[in-house]
Structures are given as structure tokens and as C-alpha cells.
Design a protein that fits this description.
Radius of gyration of chain A: 16 Å
Order of helices and strands of chain A: HHEHHEEHH
CATH class of chain A: Mainly Alpha
Largest interface: A-B, 42 and 42 residues
Number of strands of chain A: 3
Oligomer: homodimer
CATH superfamily of chain A: Winged helix-like DNA-binding domain superfamily/Winged helix DNA-binding domain
Shape of chain A: elongated
Helix content of chain A: 55-70%
Distance between the termini of chain A: 26 Å
Largest sheet of chain A: 3 strands, antiparallel
Strand order of the largest sheet of chain A: 1-3-2
CATH architecture of chain A: Orthogonal Bundle
DNA sequence: TCTTTATTTCGATATTTCTGGAATTATCGA
DNA sequence: TCGATAATTCCAGAAATATCGAAATAAAGA
């Protein structure tokens, strides 16, 4: 699993830095590896299909989600590995060394329990 | 240390999702708590002062950096706690549960060593 | 093949963000 | 107080993003 370049990190950060796209991504994370059809997402988030399509394409370009076809539906799902790479990038490049690692260990334990 | 709202997370993500701002932030992380004067940053990153000022204001608004005055200089420094909150937000809301925590534990160990 | 369903792509517009020179504000030292 | 230094704010234009209806594409089933 190769490290992210800063260009890739910027792409990913920019994708998540938008109200609708963050909501889409969070929904897909919740949905798990089964993913959700575009139509389902549009309905749940109550947004016009063409707008949704624009944001899905953005997230896919950034590598944060993947899609597969199932009959007439296109199923989108979160790429957890990509997200891990992004978080790892932030921890390695944008955190304050040991203090940061300690602080985050606490968070990890909280989430795991 | 209160959790980030999704609006705050979007602000922070948007601040880092820009070439110059990411470079500024990384530089400030490296610089440590002593921080750097605006002029130093402008020189090191070779950018016009007014542009730099725009980006510093953006990062400060997002809560990722803080500034203090020292004589004629304004010293900027990274707010590690804010960064930790952002990473924690991503792990809690945008990661795939246990699998994600395991993957990131590995990263933490790698960074710590 | 024709129709229906699922979704994307196109296109025009509105909005936001970025850029950098010029003018302005704040501080220091003589 | 004056002159020099450090930085910001102002401004206008350029570039990038977001919005969403209408038209186009892809697949399924009768």
C-alpha cells in the first residue's frame, strides 16, 4: 500500500471538504462494503441526480470510492484503504510527532471499544 | 477537547486541500511550537506576501494555526490539538470500523518508531 | 425491438476561491 | 516624531467549483 503523494492527499482532502461529498462518503462508510446504488444515495440525501453524479465522480477521481455495475444500477462503495492512506498521510506529515501519536492512540482505543 | 462538528471538519479539510496551504501547514508542523514569522514563511515558500497572508488567514480561520505577535513580526504556529481533532473526526466518521483501527495502529507504530 | 428504469453527460449560470500589486496599519529604534 | 521594517487589507480580474434541468447512454424485460 503505497504512500500518498501530496498531490493525491490534496485531491482526497478536497473531495471530503464539501458538505454533500462528506455526507455521501460518510453514508457509504456506514453502508459497508456492499455499497449503495446511486439512486439510493440520491434519495437518502435528497439531492438532484445530476448533482449527485457530479460529486460521486469527484470522489471517485480522488480514489476515495469505487463503483461497480449491477444490472441497471451503479453501486458505489467507500474505499477504506484509500481513507487509511489519507489518515496515515496526515499523521506522518501534518502531526506533531510523538505527542500527536499519543493523542491519537487514545482516540483509537475509544473508537475500538 | 470537544469533537469537531462536520462543519468544522469541512473547514479544516478545505484549508488543507490547497497546495500552498498544505505546504505552509507542513512547514509549521516541522517548525514546532516556536513557529515561524510570516516573512520567513514567504521567503521559504517563495510566495508573494499578500498571497501568503490570504492563506494564513484561511488556516487560522479553520483553527489549524495560531498567531502571536513578537515585535514587528507575526509568528504563526501549527495547532497540533486541532490537527488531532481532525484526524480523530476522520477515524470516527469516515473509517470502516475495526479494520480501519487495525490498519492505523500499524501506521502509528511505524511513525512512533 | 420497444419501453422503462438507472444513471451520466452536457451546458449555461451562479458562486466561490485564488492571485498579486498598491495602499494601509503596527512596531521599533534613533 | 521620522524612517524603515513587517505584515495585513483592499481591490479587481482570472480561474476553478457547484448547481441542476434537459438530453444522451446503458441495461433489462416484454
Amino acid at each position: 500500500m503505497a504512500d500518498l503523494s501530496s498531490t493525491q492527499a490534496i485531491e482526497a482532502l478536497g473531495s471530503l471538504a464539501q458538505e454533500h461529498r462528506l455526507a455521501i462518503f460518510r453514508l457509504l462508510v456506514q453502508a459497508g462494503s456492499g455499497g449503495l446504488a446511486a439512486g439510493d444515495i440520491a434519495e437518502r440525501l435528497a439531492m438532484p441526480k445530476s448533482s449527485l453524479s457530479f460529486h460521486l465522480a469527484h470522489l471517485e477521481r480522488a480514489g476515495l470510492i469505487v463503483r461497480r455495475r449491477d444490472g441497471r444500477s451503479l453501486i458505489y462503495s467507500a474505499d477504506y484503504a484509500a481513507m487509511n492512506r489519507l489518515v496515515a498521510y496526515l499523521m506522518e506529515n501534518c502531526c506533531g510527532g510523538a505527542g500527536c501519536v499519543d493523542a491519537l492512540s487514545g482516540s483509537l482505543e475509544r473508537i475500538a471499544s
